[in-house]
Write a structure and sequence with these properties.
The complex is a heterodimer of chains A (about 130) and B (about 625). Chain A is of the alpha+beta class and about 130 residues long. Chain A has helices spanning about 15-25, 65-75, 80-85, 110-115; strands at about 1-5, 25-30, 35-40, 45-50, 75-80, 95, 100, 120-125. Chain A has one domain (about 1-120). Chain A has a three-stranded antiparallel sheet, with no helix packed on it. In chain A, strands 1-8 form a two-stranded antiparallel ribbon. Chain B is of the alpha+beta class and about 625 residues long. The longest helix of chain B has 21 residues, at about 535-555. The chains are: A alpha+beta (about 130), B alpha+beta (about 625). Chains A and B meet through helix 1, strand 2 and helix 4 of A and helix 4, strand 13, helix 7, strand 14 and strand 16 of B. Strand 2 of chain A pairs antiparallel with strand 13 (about 205-210) of chain B.
Chain lengths: ~130, ~625
């Protein structure tokens, strides 16, 4: 399971980010969100939701044991900021000293539920991104 | 959430003072427009020169901006207006309001004048004054891009002026992203007069809410309900241009500076369906599910490469109908050009339309303008837009806005369509009495956003309307009966909406069943923990805000005589559409004024009474 992104549908409202931080941390702070909308406001006007692709092999935890990777797969926050640099999709983020990573809200991603234009949807296929 | 602060910034001496927002002030004025009006009324008066260092330029985010609600990307910017001489207060969307809140501030009060160009960087509880010499002369898009590069962060948002603001064009706007603007009243000129090129914000501070889980559930239910509404679906597909077809058919347009009120078959090329070929999807302000803005791209022809956000119904009115212009691509281009140069496009269209009528009547000639000024000629219109922003040639005269009538003289003021010195834009409201009356009494001058009761056009059941407005209001849009009550009620509602930081498209503007008093109380309970707030208290807050505005314009010299419409509304009947022969009856208009003042608790001259001030606890 992963979140599928269709950037051409995104309107750039940031509701996914707002809802993510409120659900996980009880506060509104887009910096705590595990999904971020990258906005090209002065170029092609494309808004792109960036979120973890749930890679089978977690490149962000390269060098860690497989067990360690499995343990982190469903984690929303952990320390060790090096993960951010390693993600080839720029889809894990930092907040203060920790990594913020999409945990799929335990199987019911809130961001997807609140997206009014289906720019993000749940992909339950078994295909993994990488 | 109530920990956000006010920063008082003096650009003359560089001093910055941070202050808490007192809890009782919050409960009396909420935030956004409400607290802006409280501050403006306290800090400015008859001795405040609009372009003088002392004029406070006040930025204010709503008390619910950046939270789950009804389109919470809104904020207000306010000052004494250089365009009218009275009140400038403009509500804008985009992401900048939310970013200011994440950076720790709800209000910025900027006074003084810097000796050289500067910008403000608002970041996590601090405000810095930074050099902007390298940004001076850049257009609004270039300025914002340069700021993102300089700050090394594409998520930094800014509100900026273009060359029009630098050149103190009286109707210069303040812009954020490609489209969100504090458009009316010349706030960009106020910013320019302070040598302030931009306010950039980047914030990473938490916004705490009272009941996070309940708020999320409430928001989900609200979004699900709203998304089923047909009008939300229509706005989210066509944007405000969908109004053009109705406006043209009914006769609610200003055509050739209000000489006509419809374009007939010829105007159908400006209907919303014809925009679709340029649209590459819709865009939303922060926190909004309606997404009413087109992202457009003109790929071929004379205006190939034009890329931006919009246009709105107002822009199509201003550069289409008002200019007798049916070239849609030129209208899109003109709107973008205004946004780049830093001009309020609605005012720009009004003044160019006025000049074109003066040309038609021989009051000005090619010798005055430098080139012919004909209806339906986009080239001269576009040249003039640039000339206004650069204050070049005849553009320098038009850059004075309403006061250009003093420079031109020769009876030109007769054709100037303004209310309290604010231009009327691209629509004509003679057919709909409530709309016309709302413009006449609006505190900032000609302004549909102070009270527009869109629902007046829907011929709703009488009992339902009476209950909604708490008294009799005729369901016939051509009737004057009860329309003073209707406008009063919407004024209170929109004063609250602008202070919450929510969007008017998600309240009783286009649909009577949209969120209003009770729904706003629910949000305040879940977000702020204001468990005892009631619809009546919110209405009183609306009345307090509106009456504070009224006290401000009263002390600047406005009164009953200024609550009026351009003479054309009374003297000339409209000639097109279903509204044919409509005009405003002056006696009925005066009766409406009496009813309206009484509802507000103001005297016969439109001044709030002592009893009203005491009831509302306005110092």
């Amino acid at each position: 399971m992963r979140i599928k992104v269709e950037a051409d549908k995104c309107t750039g409202c940031h509701i996914c980010e707002m809802v993510c931080s409120l659900h996980h941390e009880d506060v509104i702070n887009l910096e705590r969100a595990a999904i971020r909308v990258s906005k090209d406001d002065f170029g092609d006007l494309i808004y792109t939701p960036m979120v973890c692709r749930q890679c089978k092999k977690m490149v962000c935890l390269d060098g860690h044991s497989e067990g360690d990777q499995q343990e982190h797969r469903g984690k929303y926050r952990w320390e060790d900021a090096s993960a951010i640099e390693k993600c080839p999709f720029n889809a894990v983020f930092s907040f203060q000293d920790s990594v913020v990573h999409c945990d799929l809200c335990g199987g019911e991603p809130r961001c997807v539920q609140y997206c009014s234009v289906q720019a993000i949807t749940v992909d339950t296929g078994t295909e993994d991104a990488a | 959430m109530l920990d956000r602060k006010i920063a008082y910034i003096d650009l003359t001496d560089g001093k910055i003072d941070y202050q808490e927002i007192p809890g009782d002030l919050r409960r009396k004025y909420l935030g956004g427009r409400g607290i802006n009006m409280y501050l403006l009324n306290k800090l400015a008066g008859p001795d405040t020169e609009p372009l003088g260092a002392e004029n406070p330029l006040i930025f204010g985010t709503g008390i619910l901006t950046a939270t789950p609600g009804y389109g919470t990307g809104r904020m207000n910017i306010s000052a004494r207006s250089p365009l009218s001489g009275y009140l400038a207060d403009s509500n804008m969307g985009g992401d900048i309001g939310a970013e200011l809140r994440f950076a720790g501030f709800d209000h910025l009060v900027v006074t003084g004048k810097s000796s050289s160009p500067v910008y403000l960087f608002v970041n996590d509880g601090r405000v810095e004054i930074r050099d902007a010499s390298h940004l001076w002369g850049k257009d609004t898009f270039e300025t914002q891009t340069a700021l993102q590069q300089e700050l090394g962060d594409e998520r930094a948002k800014s509100a900026v002026i273009g060359v029009a603001g630098e050149n103190l064009v009286k109707f210069a706007h303040i812009l954020s992203d490609q489209k969100s603007s504090a458009g009316r009243g010349g706030l960009g000129a106020v910013m320019g007069s302070k040598n302030l090129k931009a306010v950039a914000a980047r914030g990473k501070l938490d916004i705490r809410v009272a009941r996070p889980a309940e708020l999320l559930d409430h928001f989900k239910a609200a979004c699900d309900g709203l998304q089923k509404k047909k009008w939300i679906q229509a706005l989210g597909t066509q944007g405000t241009p969908l109004l053009f077809k109705f406006g043209n058919r009914t006769g609610l347009l200003s055509v050739r500076n209000h000489q006509d009120n419809g374009m007939g078959e010829e105007g159908r090329v400006l209907e919303a369906e014809n925009l679709e070929r340029y649209s590459e999807g819709m865009a939303a302000c922060f926190g909004c599910i309606v997404h009413c803005r087109h992202r457009h791209h003109i790929k071929e022809g004379k205006y190939a490469g034009t890329r931006g956000v919009g246009p709105e119904y107002g822009g199509i009115g201003a550069f289409g109908a008002n200019m007798g212009n049916t070239d849609l691509e030129s209208i899109i281009y003109a709107c973008d050009l205004c946004n780049r140069l830093g001009l309020d496009l609605s005012s720009t269209g009004t003044y160019i339309g006025w000049a074109t009528e003066l040309y038609q009547r021989g009051i000005i000639t090619e010798k005055d303008v430098g080139f012919p000024l004909e209806w339906g000629e986009p080239d001269s219109m576009i040249t003039l837009i640039d000339d206004i922003a650069q204050r070049r040639g005849f553009g320098d005269t038009l850059a004075e806005g309403t006061f250009a009538r003093d420079k031109i003289g020769k009876g030109s003021e007769k054709y100037m369509m303004t209310i309290k010195n604010i231009p009327c834009g691209g629509t004509d409201e003679r057919a709909v009495k409530s709309f016309a009356f709302g413009l006449a009494v609006a505190t900032r001058g000609s302004d549909h956003l102070r009270s527009r009761p869109g629902v007046d056009l829907f011929d709703l059941p009488q009992d339902f309307i009476n209950e909604l407005y708490g008294g009799y209001v005729s369901t016939d849009y051509t009737s004057y009966d009860g329309k003073a009550r209707m406008i009063w009620w919407h004024e209170l509602l929109y004063a609250v909406v602008d202070s919450l930081g929510t969007c008017k498209f998600q309240t009783v503007f286009n649909s009577p069943n949209s969120p209003k008093w009770q729904e706003f109380c629910d949000l305040l309970r879940l977000s702020l923990g204001w468990d005892d707030i009631t619809p009546q208290e919110l209405m009183d807050i609306g009345e307090r805000i509106y009456t504070t505005e009224r006290l401000f314009i009263n002390k600047l010299g406005l009164g009953r005589d200024d609550d009026t419409l351009p003479r054309r509304y009374f003297d000339e009947k409209v000639s097109s559409g279903l509204a044919k022969d409509a005009y405003i009856d002056e006696d009925r208009f005066q009766q409406m004024l009496d009813e309206y003042y009484e509802l507000h608790g103001w005297d016969a001259q439109g001044a709030p009474t002592e009893a009203t001030r005491q009831r509302l606890d306005i110092a």
